[in-house]
Amino acid sequence: MAAIKNVLLVTFDQWRWDCLSAMGHPLLQTPKLDAFARDAVLFRNHWSVTCPCGPGRTALLTGTYLHKNRALRNGTPLDRRFTNVALETRKLNYDPVLFGYTDISPDPRGANPRDPIFNSYEGVLPGMTRICRLDDDFGTWFADLTAKGYALPDHPWDIFRPSAQVPGKRYSFAPAPFKAEDSNAAFLTNRLIDYLDARQGQSWFAHVTYISPHPPFVSPEPYNARYDAADVPPPVRAKTPEAEGAAHPWLNYRIGSHGKGANQGSGLVIGQDINPAEMDDSEIAQIRATYYGMINEVEDNFQRILDHLKAQGVYDETLIILTSDHGEQLGDHWLFSKTGFFDESYRIPLIIRDPRAEADAARGRTIDAFTESVDIMPTILELLGAPIPRQVDGFPLTKWLTGGTPGAWRDAAHFEYDFGDPTARSAETALGLRTDECGLAVLRTDRYKYVHFTALPPLLYDLREDPAQLIDRAGDPAYREALLEMTQRMLTWRMRTEERDLTYCHIGNGVYELPDDRYRDL
Questions:
Q1: What is the DSSP track for 75-109?
Q2: How many domains, the chain?
């Protein structure tokens, strides 16, 4: 096998970790992804360090935690002082290209606020060359649909409004109004294949971002009927929304009157305005079934890419990383979308294929250690032989990919979420908080999960006794020592990951760069 020549970084948007048959899902079958995992390394305990889309992708592409980059929400600018995987690989003579979107809002300081770059939060990661644009207006995809004779809606997202209802089926069963071969995913895949054909043997770095299985939950035929709603496993949740919400003020707010606006704002099902806490169980089951079919659609398109790489003879020259930006509640805990502190919003799949000969022994390996989205950037850079910037909070996964086991690896996942809304101030008003008090951070080990709120009570779950995370132990005297330990561990984590760009410099008789010893014990 040759050395790494190309890089393919693929994300499925809002893809939760258990929705992969290689992870033991009781219904969903993903045979093509499973086959890819057998030729790669599957990380079974992988976590996005934040959500929603913009923050999740910022962490993935810069290798930094939310408390460092502070790109808190969709539309929060990313400080231009941060480097990223595209800028760093440009130093290696790659031209990183984008198919889809990165949702990175540009730093407005020093710029004219009337610059059209600020008309949408869906900016492009600095250093990325956008080849195929798929933002909120779906411009290039819509041009393709028009050329094929489709009538386009007045409002772009209405393209996902289900077609005529099917008797005896719930609303989200109805297929999309476009054929599978004309879908957003198929279009994106076609454009990537065209680009690869044009490279004619030159090296490349492509970032491909499929929007599925992000809502609206609608899928083209035949994927809409792939799974019967009657066979779908039920949501993990308390008996009632009220019982779930009683666990914490934020959860009560999120499930309660706010739930309708928050979840419908995510476009669960275009044309159906309903609070998920009031949704009929059969409709929730159908949404889950539709979500599974959406995963199969992007799975098939991902396989088209793999097949094309093999046909071109470059599969064994290409580093391939398949992951997501965050998860999806999918009705668990009476919630949809990506939000809060439950595992469903943060635990995601990760499959990496290192094409080098030294990775052969690890093919088909599964890793149960905690890995995080901030590990992707340093992994790419180390495999390409590039230095890892001081800003990076993650650790390279390289040793896992070649059959080894890193020393001193993390034994917990860390993630953060900002629920402030400085525009509408909904959370601020409902909970009596300032915007800068609307934050939470989570430390999750195999045994405990600790949730620290900036200005609300904490939560502690005993995952051994309560894997569904329904019983808060923070006020239980029997868990006082566990609560203290988790609080101290979170403080230690935050202190270890503070800003460090200049902390390794020493001024005196010139500028001396101290050695970076963060990876010494790996």
A1: TPBPPTT---HHHHHHTTT--EEEEE----BPP-T
A2: 1
pTM of the model: 0.96
Look up residue 249 and give its two tokens: 């003020």
Can you give the residue range of the structural domain that contains 230? 6-513
Q: How far apart are CA 96 and CA 69, in angstroms?
A: 22
Tell me if 237 sits within 8 A of 332, measured CB to CB: yes
Known catalytic residues are 53
12-31 pLDDT, tens digit per residue, is: 999 999 999 999 999 999 99
Structure tokens at 45: 């305990």
- pLDDT, residue 271, reads 55
Please identify every stretch of the chain with a pLDDT value under 50, giving residue numbers as ranges. 1, 261-266
Does 368 map to a domain?
A: yes
* Alpha-carbon dihedral sign for residues 190, 196, 200, 201: negative
Q: Which of 262, 328, 308 is nearest to 12 (CA)?
A: 328
Predicted confidence (pLDDT) per residue in 242-256, tens digit: 999 999 999 999 998
In a domain, residue 520? The reply is no
Strands 96-100 and 205-210, by their bridges, are parallel
Q: What CATH number does the domain containing 458 carry?
A: 3.40.720.10
Q: Contact 348/50 with Cβ under 8 angstroms?
A: no
In-domain check, residue 519: no
The residue among 189, 459, 218, 376 whose CA lies nearest residue 300 is 189
**Is 522 among the domain residues?**
no
Instruction: Using DSSP bridges, classify how beta strands 41-43 and 365-367 pair: parallel, antiparallel or unpaired.
Output: parallel
